């Protein structure tokens, strides 16, 4: 039986005013980017909580891209700066949890930057493809249990199942 080549699943949280508009412009201009990225429109990347980023990895994303407004150009004044700090914090947390920090990235994109957004998505897909499947989801497949989560006990140990307590 032949195993299929790994195709990473990347989740992109895009700011409504800039990055999502750039993705829309990319479609209008027929600029291609990989189909294995799922774009989620957010009012502002400053609205993203660290829990959303962790949940993305827990539910099967191999990589997460946060695309916000250019620095100094946020429609909500400083939301993208909050997001930048949260993403940096989460990159450090991913390393402590035994995941590669390269699985999470933030880019700043204006509404007119369709080509740079496409390039950022393509680069993210290639980076995650080199890293391989998300180890939290056990070789790229989500855990079938609903009331438990998978946590690494340390970076080199196999994953163990931890039951959820009430």
Describe this structure in words.
The protein is α/β, with parallel strands linked by helices and 166 residues long. It has a single domain, classed as Rossmann fold (3-Layer(aba) Sandwich), CATH 3.40.50. The protein is 34% helix and 20% strand. The strands form two sheets. A four-stranded parallel beta sheet has the order 2-1-3-4, sandwiched between helices. Strand 1, helix 1 and strand 2 form a beta-alpha-beta unit. The longest helix is centred in the middle third of the chain and has 19 residues. It is globular.
Note the topology:
Elements: E1 10-15, H1 19-28, E2 37-42, H2 50-58, E3 63-68, H3 79-97, E4 104-108, H4 114-131, E5 148-152, E6 159-163
Helix pairs in contact: 1-4
At the first level of CATH, what is the class?
A: Alpha Beta
- Share of helix among residues? 25-40%
The CATH architecture assignment turns out to be 3-Layer(aba) Sandwich
CATH topology: Rossmann fold
Rounded mean pLDDT score: 85
Shape: globular
Spell the H/E element sequence. EHEHEHEHEE
């Amino acid at each position: 039986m032949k195993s299929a080549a790994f195709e990473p699943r990347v989740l992109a949280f895009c700011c409504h005013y800039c990055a999502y508009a750039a993705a829309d412009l990319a479609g209008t201009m027929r600029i291609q980017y990989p189909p294995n990225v799922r774009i989620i429109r957010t009012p502002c990347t400053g609205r993203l909580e660290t829990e959303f980023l962790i949940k993305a990895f827990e539910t099967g994303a191999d990589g997460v891209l946060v695309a916000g407004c250019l620095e100094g150009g946020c429609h909500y004044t400083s939301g993208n700066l909050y997001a930048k700090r949260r993403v940096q914090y989460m990159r450090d947390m991913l390393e402590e949890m035994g995941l590669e920090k390269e699985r999470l990235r933030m880019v700043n994109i204006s509404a007119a930057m369709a080509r740079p957004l496409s390039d950022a998505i393509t680069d993210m897909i290639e980076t995650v493809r080199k890293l391989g499947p998300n180890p939290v989801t056990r070789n790229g497949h989500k855990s079938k249990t609903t009331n438990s989560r998978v946590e690494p006990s340390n970076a080199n140990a196999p994953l163990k199942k931890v039951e959820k307590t009430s």
